[in-house]
Specification:
This protein is α/β, with parallel strands linked by helices. It has a single domain, classed as Vaccinia Virus protein VP39 (Rossmann fold). It is built from nine helices and ten strands. It has an eight-stranded mixed β-sheet with strand order 1-6-5-4-7-8-10-9, sandwiched between helices. The protein has a two-stranded antiparallel sheet with strand order 2-3. Strand 5, helix 3 and strand 6 form a beta-alpha-beta unit. Helix 1 crosses helix 9. The protein is globular, with a radius of gyration of 18 Å. The two termini are 30 Å apart. 43% of the residues are buried.
Length: 290
């Protein structure tokens, strides 16, 4: 297991929009044994965007989760975050730059990804660990994040158990996973899905990917002694594809409109099922310990 550490940067918030105004189902009052993830009063601090742009682009699910994490960071002296399957670390660059009170630990089994993460997070409060997220206790973490990773994890039970073991008692995990590889993927994706399973069974998990069924995920959550606090869907087909067609100067506005629309769509009573995955490409959960 290899560890690389870098140091802190400067905060750069902006005044504008608070995502809490969009989410009509958020927890309004803290209760005993409830996770402390509800948005706080930040005197108008904009956790959605900033003078240098949004926290992340091209993915409404990630923008939603990062915004909720930023709200927690704005409300606390320190916030410990563990990012399982951090890849190159790019999802958290802007958040760490604006909130230096966040202590970030990224974990990834790919050495090259860890090297890129070290480079991308240089000068920020970040630790990078080269290891698979199996059988580890990486906390105590206030927040565990797992963005677009679970569909590539072979031992999903051990992975979610690692997430649970890393959380403090009132911590929360933001977990999302995608269906795009399986409902709209390329021929390369289809080959990778077939071959990856064979290789994973032989101990080579690098190319593994498979669809995450709703029933399977809920069963694994319970086995890991976690509970579902919130379940949403994001990255509606066509909207995600349209993003890539826009000129750069229109992307901030589109991302905010896109996220607002999808939060409203989640309020309309549409019950998610696996058959909707071709339309609703990303499943998004907030989890807490039981």
């Amino acid at each position: 297991m290899a560890i690389v550490t870098t140091t802190a940067s400067n905060r750069h918030p902006n005044l504008a929009i608070n995502l809490a105004s969009y989410d009509r189902q958020m927890i309004s009052q803290r209760k005993v044994a409830s996770p402390s993830w509800e948005p706080s009063s930040t005197d108008g601090v904009d956790t959605l965007g900033g003078v240098d742009g949004l926290l992340v682009y091209g993915n409404a699910a990630k923008l939603y989760c990062l915004t909720r994490i930023a709200e927690l960071a704005a409300a606390r002296e320190t916030l410990a975050v563990v990012d399982l399957g951090c890849g190159a670390g790019t999802n958290f660059v802007e958040l760490l730059r604006r909130w230096p009170n966040v202590r970030y630990m990224g974990v990834d089994p790919d050495l090259e990804a860890c090297t890129r993460a070290r480079e991308n997070l240089a000068g920020l409060e970040a630790t990078i660990i080269h290891a698979p997220a199996y059988g580890l206790e990486l906390g105590p973490a206030d927040v565990v994040a797992s963005f677009s990773v679970l569909e590539h994890v072979y031992n999903r039970s051990a992975y979610l158990e690692c997430a649970a073991a890393s959380l403090v008692s009132d911590g929360v995990a933001f977990v999302n996973y995608d269906a795009g590889h399986f409902v709209a993927g390329s021929s390369r994706d289809r080959v990778k899905t077939l071959v990856g399973g064979v290789l994973a069974r032989a101990g080579r998990e690098r190319w593994y990917q498979s669809f995450v069924a709703e029933e399977q995920f809920r069963r694994l959550v319970a086995r890991a002694e976690l509970r579902i606090v919130e379940a949403k869907f994001f990255n509606t087909a066509t909207l995600k594809e349209l993003y890539g067609k826009l000129p750069p100067e229109s992307r901030d506005r589109f991302m905010q409109e896109w996220l607002e629309f999808e939060l409203g769509l989640n309020d309309l009573g549409l019950a998610y099922e696996d058959a909707l995955a071709p339309l609703l490409r990303t499943r998004n959960f907030v989890l807490a310990r039981t």
